[in-house]
Design a protein that fits this description.
Layout (H helix, E strand, L loop, with lengths): L1 E8 L2 E10 L4 H9 L9 E11 L1 H12 L1
Parallel strand pairs: 2-3
Antiparallel strand pairs: 1-2
């Protein structure tokens, strides 16, 4: 199971990842990331400290969402 929280801190968008961010969770990851709407010129910070696991597949999806 995954969780994605978004917060705004000092004009930056922070994404907080929690849970198992792995290939097995790809459907949930895609759905969660579709809720993220980065604004051009707004700094974005990805915080994965609370993620139990983060594999290359999940990292790639996060990267694609952030960079369009």
């Amino acid at each position: 199971m995954i969780e994605l929280r978004q917060t705004s801190i000092d004009g930056e968008l922070h994404l907080h990842l929690q849970g198992e961010w792995t290939f097995e969770q790809v459907v949930a990851i895609k759905a969660a990331l579709q809720q993220v709407q980065p604004v051009a010129g707004t700094p974005l910070v990805v915080n994965a400290q609370a993620a139990a696991r983060l594999d290359v597949t999940a990292a790639w999806f996060v990267y694609q969402q952030v960079h369009g």
